[in-house]
Amino acid sequence: MNYQKVLITGASGLLGHYLCRYFVNRKYDVFGISHNHRIEIPEVTEISCDLLDEEQFSQIFRSVAPDLVIHCAGLTNVDTCENDEARANKIHVQLSQFIAEQSKKIGAKMVHISTDHLWDGTKVNVTEDFPTSPINAYARSKFKGEKVVLEKNPDALIVRTNFFGQGLQWRKSFSDWIIETLVNNKVLNAFEDVFFTPISIPLLSEYIFDSIQIDLKGIYHIVGCERISKYQFAVKIAEIFKLPLNLINPVSYKNAGLIAGRPMDMSLSVEKIEKALSKKMPTIEQSVQSILSLESDNVKKLN
């Protein structure tokens, strides 16, 4: 598909910020919406906006007139969502509905970033059509957001994912936390009984771009092809970055005392996306290697 103007929400977040760079490097006109933090990418037209202000956001849609809208903004702290489900619904449901409606109205392609938290964790490598069973406010609001997006804009692409990679000063990823903890010679406790199928931000961005080019519609899981525990993932990161393995302790999620319940298995099937793109999703090794040069520089700075 031939898109020229890209509007990205959550452009100062982990994925949104990287997508801004990704599309700029491919000579797109990129407009990034942020609220609390600057984007600071010279080629990106930065727009400061409270996304819940529908009048202000409507004006942005009219003035930018994007061909493509990538909705990355969200309330990602699971416990915060649990403590304020009304706010989670405003951000994940009401806002998503508004963006779906506005995108449909102006004929823009919409890509909606979702999550792997939508089940109770009793099934492994779940498929896109497997019935959801959310166990916390974050997951409930994200699922309702998916549903309303497709109701209002059936041509939208929903991307369920779980990503890692070099973060920002104000927003660190899981791999950042692992690296910084070990570089500082601190003990790292990682869940040995929580499983997921992570993908690096650079590779996720590539597959999102590929999906847009062939105009995929509906729900797709874009994650890594390997199911791994949080503990084994930390070990893999430490091995590749040559960080001390003896500082990593396997612990149980059951003893964590978190406010909101979390699914103990978030692994997703990638069969549908692999068939659509005619390519394999990355292994853990491939994903970590894709961030190696960037994170190696980060390790040097921390040392």
Automatic annotation (TrEMBL):
InterPro entries tied to this protein: dTDP_dehydrorham_reduct, NAD(P)-bd_dom_sf, RmlD-like-bd
Major enzyme class: oxidoreductase
EC assignment: 1.1.1.133
Gene Ontology molecular function: dTDP-4-dehydrorhamnose reductase activity; methionine adenosyltransferase regulator activity
GO biological process, one term: S-adenosylmethionine biosynthetic process
Pathway the protein acts in: Carbohydrate biosynthesis; dTDP-L-rhamnose biosynthesis
GO CC field: methionine adenosyltransferase complex
Family of the protein in this entry: Belongs to the dTDP-4-dehydrorhamnose reductase family.
PANTHER family, A to Z: DTDP-4-DEHYDRORHAMNOSE REDUCTASE, METHIONINE ADENOSYLTRANSFERASE 2 SUBUNIT BETA
Task performed by this protein: Catalyzes the reduction of dTDP-6-deoxy-L-lyxo-4-hexulose to yield dTDP-L-rhamnose.
Name of the featured protein: dTDP-4-dehydrorhamnose reductase
